[in-house]
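Example 9 (inverse folding). The structure is encoded as follows.
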């Protein structure tokens, strides 16, 4: 008999993240479920220990450089549940979150496809609750620090425009129809691309502010930003330009100028890691390289430093 929910988690060898996440699932979930962990670039000893400590989890080894979409898709193609929960490894909940998200579908219109919870930081402060429309010009303004995404967009169970990839529940049949995550992108904006495509296909995207998950992203920031950020910016420009060369040029000019200003400021202030990040971004905007190719190039450079 198939489970009601399939849970998919990607973890990059961070046992300090993974263990609390899996323990919270085990403690607070009563609906039938299966759990997949994509063990991304795992140390073999860590992988063996995790398998022993969590025998109810299916671990999928991922030993090549892959992005958010590629790693998730390794597991998504194996899911059997009516619903799929995509969950970051640096999340943790203290309530029956998954049960609540499943129950929400019983109250929503038949065209509802995705429900996300309220995200809070490790200190309990609000991180994000639903996401409003995010047109291309706001993306450019955000690079200039002239726009900040609203973090609180509604209360109760309300319809929203976009999700965050840290935690959301989606109907598996819809996810399969949409082709899972779009592997064009590398780290961002896979979540916005997915919710945008869902809405374009006539599906509803919702948020339940009463269901809360802790997302500890501030405590797990990576020193890989000189590789991650350039790939993310390139992917975002590809998404927001929607295949139109002129749109890409105009958006790219706006972002390139903003990042060049940041690059000069970081150099003057002696912030070497930031300067390297902004340098890589400005060099990646007007290139034919894919987001993945950009990441791999700069990741290998960082490993050789």
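The amino acid assigned to each position is listed next.
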């Amino acid at each position: 008999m198939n489970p009601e929910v399939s849970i998919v988690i990607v973890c990059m060898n961070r046992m300090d993240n993974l263990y609390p996440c899996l323990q919270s699932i085990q403690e607070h979930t009563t609906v039938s479920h299966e759990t997949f962990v994509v063990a991304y670039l795992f140390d073999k000893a860590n992988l063996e220990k995790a398998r022993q400590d969590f025998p109810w989890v299916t671990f999928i080894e991922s030993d090549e450089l892959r992005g958010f979409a590629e790693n998730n898709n390794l597991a998504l193609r194996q899911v059997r549940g009516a619903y799929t929960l995509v969950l970051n490894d640096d999340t943790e909940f203290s309530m029956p979150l998954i049960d609540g998200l499943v129950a929400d579908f019983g109250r929503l219109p038949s065209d509802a496809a995705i429900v996300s919870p309220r995200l809070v930081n490790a200190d309990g402060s609000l991180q994000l609750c639903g996401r409003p429309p995010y047109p291309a010009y706001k993306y450019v303004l955000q690079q200039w620090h002239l726009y900040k995404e609203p973090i609180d967009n509604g209360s109760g169970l309300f319809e929203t425009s976009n999700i965050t990839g840290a935690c959301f529940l989606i109907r598996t049949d819809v996810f399969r129809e949409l082709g899972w995550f779009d592997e064009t992108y590398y780290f961002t904006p896979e979540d916005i691309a997915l919710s945008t495509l869902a809405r374009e296909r006539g599906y509803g995207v919702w948020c339940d502010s009463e269901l809360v998950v802790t997302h500890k992203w501030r405590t797990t920031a990576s020193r890989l930003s000189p590789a991650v950020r350039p790939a993310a910016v390139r992917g975002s420009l590809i998404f927001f330009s929607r295949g139109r060369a002129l749109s890409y040029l105009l958006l790219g000019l706006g972002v390139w100028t903003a990042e060049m200003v940041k690059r000069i400021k970081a150099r003057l202030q002696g912030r070497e890691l930031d300067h390297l990040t902004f340098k890589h971004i400005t060099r990646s905007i007007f290139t034919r390289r894919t987001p993945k190719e950009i990441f791999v190039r700069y990741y290998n450079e960082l490993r050789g430093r």
